[in-house]
From TrEMBL:
Keywords: Membrane, Transmembrane, Transmembrane helix
UniProt keyword annotation of Transmembrane present: yes
Transmembrane segments: 124-153, 159-179
UniProt source species: marine metagenome
Protein name per UniProt: Uncharacterized protein
Length: 210
């Protein structure tokens, strides 16, 4: 199982190098942006659709960390649901990537970075892919403890669903680090495996605690 999880982690990172997938997911998001906005910004609709996970979105404190955690967790849960659907649904990958682009857009907003339009966020996906591909070995090693948790917490649930959450967490944290770097006038991809893995692991434990 752990080998399959690590493979999924690699695929999750490398799919951002696939020009066809990037174009398809961008087109999907452009066509469905109003629906996605309603899903995440209409609290009643969000709680109805994601009712089993409603407690995840309740926070007593509105800090930057809690807001970023919330948007990553929401997208991670949706991607996990897509991963749990039967069969090999190619459209699932496109939708997941579109959701991750929305996640990146919202993280940038929380950090005070304003884009003219949501599609502007796609320019950073190449940098994310390049940076994570470079540090992927270190990330997999550093997240070893998280991998070992799957066999303990999954029970009858497909452990790859938890792996999908972890992959989305990693991408979300990478965008968080990258946009934070921009705010500090640093290079977008100037973050290392140790730091990003630490925060990703903390986020995953936070989600499990919910």
């Amino acid at each position: 199982v752990l080998d399959e999880i690590k493979k999924l982690l690699e695929e999750g990172v490398h799919r951002y190098k696939n020009a066809d997938l990037l174009n398809e997911s961008r087109e999907w998001l452009d066509k469905n942006v109003s629906k996605i906005r309603a899903l995440f910004e209409n609290i009643s609709l969000r709680d109805f659709i994601l009712e089993p996970f409603k407690s995840v979105f309740n926070s007593n404190t509105l800090t930057l960390k809690s807001e970023v955690y919330s948007v990553i967790t929401q997208v991670a849960l949706i991607n996990a649901v897509l991963a749990g659907l039967p069969g090999k649904l190619g459209i699932g990958v496109v939708v997941s990537m579109g959701m991750e682009a929305w996640m990146a857009y919202k993280i940038a907003q929380h950090l005070g970075i304003r884009f003219t339009k949501i599609s502007d966020v796609w320019q950073y996906f190449g940098a994310i892919a390049a940076t994570l591909a470079t540090i992927l070995w270190g990330v997999k090693a550093a997240l070893g403890a998280a991998f070992s948790m799957f066999s303990l917490i999954s029970g009858p649930i497909n452990p790859l669903i938890f792996a999908e959450i972890l992959v989305t967490d990693l991408l979300g944290v990478a965008f968080w680090f990258g946009f934070s770097n921009i705010k500090k006038n640093k290079e977008f991809g100037s973050f290392g495996a140790k730091d990003i893995s630490k925060v990703t692991h903390e986020l995953f434990k936070h989600q499990y605690g919910l």
